[in-house]
Structures are given as structure tokens and as C-alpha cells.
Design a protein that fits this description.
This protein is mainly alpha-helical and 167 residues long. It has one domain. The protein is built from 7 helices and 5 strands, in the order βββαααβαααβα. The chain has helices at 27-55, 59-81, 85-89, 104-117, 121-129, 138-141, 152-157; strands at 5-6, 17-18, 22-24, 92-96, 143-148. Strands 3-5-4 form a 3-stranded antiparallel sheet. Helix 1 (27-55) packs across helix 2 (59-81) and helix 2 (59-81) packs across helix 4. The longest helix has 29 residues, at 27-55. The N and C termini lie far apart (41 Å).
Length: 167
């Protein structure tokens, strides 16, 4: 895989610049990916709750299982496959600045902070106003969310109608 970020000539303190074939992940795509991931985690959680309910009584354990499942899902998917199922569906990737996968620790930090901060309004405003569209949980994890820039050929292959000038 080619490096989706190249270091600018101005020095190491400057913010990384995306390569030509990548762009910062759009906020709308990130929200759609998050909604898909909520459904995926919920679907995975239901059988786990059923088993836990049969083995041990207690509603608190089901909530703990949900939190642990969400942390494991986010950490493993982002560190191993560069994104969750929601991210894959929205053509997004989670990468380090050098283009490599996140470590398991970086994925865990990102997942934990996402769980803790998702309910705050400022969390959803930060990606809208920042140049690289990074959420609050991306910074401590050293993560960048990028989306592949579509080209004309991809649109044609996907069957998208492209307007052409008629002479």
C-alpha cells in the first residue's frame, strides 16, 4: 500500500498532507459508519446477552459485556483491518500518519475515547471545523481517517452517469 500521507517540505512540525489518491474522511461518511457499527455491535451483543442471562442472572453484566464488546470490536477492526465494517462500507480507513495500521493500543485508545466522548456536542463539531476532519479521539491515538478519492473511471465502472459536453 502506498503511503496515504506524505510529510510536507516545511518540516516535521507541519501537519501531514494527504497523497493525491486520498482525502480526509467526510464527516457524513464517518457518522454513517458509526451508525452501521452501532447496529453490528448490537447484533453481536444480543446472543452474548442471551448466553449470559442463561448462565448468570444480572442486568449489570449485560451492560459490561456491551462495553467490552464495543472496545474489542473497535480495537481489533481498526488495528488489524484499518477500519470497522461501517468504515469499510463507507470506503474509509483509519491509519497512522505514516500510512501504517494502528497498533492494538492505538485502536483501544481510539475506541475508549469514542465511547466516552460520543455523547458530547463538541465531539461532533471538531471534525467539521478541522482541516483534516479529525475527531477528538483521533488525536491521542495518532489516527487519521481517510477516504479514497473517486476518479472518473471508478464512477464509470460503478454505473454512475457522468454528464458530458455535447458538441
Amino acid at each position: 500500500m502506498s503511503n496515504p500521507y506524505k510529510t510536507p517540505e516545511s518540516g516535521p512540525s507541519a501537519e501531514p498532507q494527504p497523497a493525491a489518491s486520498w482525502r480526509p474522511g467526510a464527516v457524513g461518511n464517518r457518522i454513517a459508519a458509526g451508525l452501521i457499527d452501532v447496529v453490528v455491535v448490537f447484533v453481536l451483543w444480543l446472543p452474548l446477552v442471551w448466553v449470559l442471562d442463561r448462565l448468570v442472572a444480572g442486568d449489570g453484566l449485560a451492560f459490561v459485556a456491551l462495553i467490552v464488546l464495543a472496545l474489542i470490536y473497535g480495537s481489533v477492526m481498526e488495528s488489524r483491518w484499518q477500519g470497522t465494517l461501517g468504515f469499510k462500507a463507507n470506503r474509509l480507513r483509519v491509519l497512522q500518519q505514516d500510512g501504517s495500521n494502528l497498533s492494538m493500543l492505538q485502536g483501544f485508545i481510539r475506541s475508549l475515547l469514542r465511547l466516552l466522548l460520543s455523547g458530547t456536542l463538541v465531539t461532533w463539531l471538531v471534525p467539521v471545523v478541522t482541516k483534516r476532519k479529525r475527531a477528538l479521539w483521533d488525536y491521542p491515538a495518532g489516527a487519521f481517517v481517510v477516504g479514497h478519492k473517486r476518479d472518473r473511471r471508478e464512477d464509470e465502472l460503478a454505473g454512475v452517469v457522468i454528464s458530458q459536453e455535447i458538441d
